[in-house]
Amino acid sequence: MSTGSLLVISGFSGAGKGTVIKKLLEEYDDYALSISATTRHPREGEVDGSSYFFMDREKFETMIGNDEFLEHAEYVGNYYGTPKKYVVDKLEAGINVILEIETVGALNVKKTYPAAKLIFILPPSAAELENRLKGRGTEDDATIAKRLSKAYKECDAVEAYEYIVINDSVEATAKTINMIAAEDSQTVEKTRKENNLDLIKDIKKGLEVYYKGE
Ligand code: 5GP
Predict the structure, then answer these.
(1) Of 12, 25, 79, 212, which is most buried with the most CB atoms under 10 A?
(2) For the chain, what is the domain count?
């Protein structure tokens, strides 16, 4: 049996990563989502062991000491990490594993696991990202402005990814990611970062007006 693919999926807040990943898990067999550990407090509705494994810093640091993480990073004052055992077991069983993590962690995964496929999900345009964030209706204008400013900063990290996928429809995006996992040559060619540099540039230009310099 061949091993599964390790898919590292990142994207700006509001780019629709969560919905696309949910679709992928629903539509296709042989995918599993890694559940991260974190020291941040649960948000309303989050469930321990399914949203995250919530823990204090002491427990997290013990796990670091025991080499139990595939990668870990500090993000806005909290630790986040990918427990190694689950990922390794699934991959060995031929299951594709999805990591939804931020950019520093993604690059670390690539160092320890070079076969990992780094995928960045982009919105069709900067204006569309703003629409989606506003359409969620869950955050105030100041928070949305912060997320857009952060997205501008994150544009530089996008170039470290191998595959760029535009999320214009949830179904099509999930399908594209499945084809990347299967190493379909046409899909790989279309989504390769090198073939999408202009697009990254356009999005960055569109986001520039939101940048607050932090
Ligand atoms: P949130 O607190 O909003 O759930 O997540 C904050 C950021 O941490 C998101 O960009 C999310 O993708 C990232 N993240 C979640 N789990 C992990 C992880 O295990 N490792 C790393 N490096 N980042 C993570």
Answers:
(1) 12
(2) 1
Q: Is the CB of residue 80 below 6 angstroms from any atom belonging to ligand 1?
A: yes
101 CB within 6 A, ligand 1: yes
**30: in domain:** yes
Give 74-104 pLDDT, tens digit per residue: 987 899 999 999 999 999 999 999 999 988 9
CATH number of the domain that residue 155 is part of: 3.40.50.300
Residue 45 lies in a domain: no
d(CA 94, CA 104): 26
The best mutation among 21, 101, 109 to test binding of ligand 1, ranked by most ligand atoms within 8 Å of the C-beta, falls on 101
Domain holding 172, by residue range, is 6-34+96-210
Neighbours of 206 (CB within 10 A): 19
pTM (predicted TM-score): 0.92
